[in-house]
Amino acid sequence: MASPEDDPLENHPKYEKIRNLNRGSFGFVQLARRRDTRKELAIKFIERGDKISKNVEREIHNHRSLYHPHIIKFEEVFLTSKYIGIAMEFAAGGDLFDFVVSRGGLKEDEARWFFQQLICAVDYMHHKGVVNRDIKLENSLLTNHVKPLLKICDFGYSKSDQNDSVPKSKVGTYLYVAPEVIADRNYDGKRADIWSCGVMLYAMLAGQYPFERPEDKGAGVNDHQKLQNVMKRILEVDYQIPRHLRVSTECQDLLSRILVREPERRITLVGIQRHPFYTRDLPTNFFQVNEQLKAAPLPEDMQSHDSIDEIIREAKNSPTPFDADAEDLYVDDSEAGYFDGDDLDSEDI
Fold it and tell me: Would you state the pLDDT for residue 321?
């Protein structure tokens, strides 16, 4: 079983471990630095063998295809004797979930700035043909600037227009999933991502999720009942703005256009970027810069697609005891498929 105590970077020629960051069912993440430049990076370690699933391949290739200031930068993949390592940019400010929890919700101007950055990144990502399918506060990392910058991380459930089939699996985090993801049919991953962005905006403002209620946390309510209650509200788009919350009519209007049951009636990214809530206080060159980024090629020194494929093939050849991958866990219709084992407890927000 994967364990950070293994210290896969011991005596590594390029990287040295600083400390453990976190771990989950996928493996574990360490903060490391390059021995030559002293640059700090986050490295995600996954056991070689059966755990190198199609989802891991997608995660690596889809992440590698994106190069944007609001997406955690992919550095490289490499092998140790027991693990495949995915090296990426380190964001020292923690995640947006903890940031929101620590403040009990954000003021509208602050939430708007994070939302503007989020939509900017999602617009770029979708332009490059990648849908994330797990957009949430926990997967939005922050820099440690006074005015933090947001960076999307984790492409473990992502799919590519060019290389993958139409999304149909019930993946993601149930508090953020769109109604069509719950339904038993194919869905447009880009429209589902937009829904999740709306849930994030609500959660940033309210310090709670739009489809949870206090009674879900009452005595005698088990996880199954809570899940059923939340999914029913998602399907009915049953949410309210808390009475104590001071939210502008522009913000409420945008939320009402994002959190729409029928995906074809949901506002598009273009519509969001033209909405008066979104355009308020934007830097003057915001759209221009993003269009330039969408048109720009990947850096010439980016690790090649072929070399990554070779590393992945080699990683698969080290057998480990069977451990079902995420695709196996989430393609069925059971309610258990909606739980992401690495999620923080939703009661904390």
Answer: 47
CATH superfamily of 96-293+343-348: Transferase(Phosphotransferase) domain 1 (1.10.510.10)
| Neighbouring residues of 271: CB distance < 8 A, sequence distance ≥ 6 | 257
Query: Alpha-carbon distance 174 to 231, whole Å?
Result: 8
Amino acid present at 81: S
Q: Each residue of 263-313: pLDDT tens digit?
A: 999 999 999 999 999 999 999 999 999 999 999 999 999 999 999 999 999
Architecture of domain 4-90+298-330: 2-Layer Sandwich (3.30)
- The yes-or-no answer on residue 134 being catalytic is yes
**How many Å apart are CA 110 and CA 301, to the nearest integer?**
36
Q: Please count the residues of the chain.
A: 349
Cα of 98 vs its chain's centroid, Å: 15
Considering the candidates 134, 154, 193, 340, report the single residue annotated as catalytic: 134
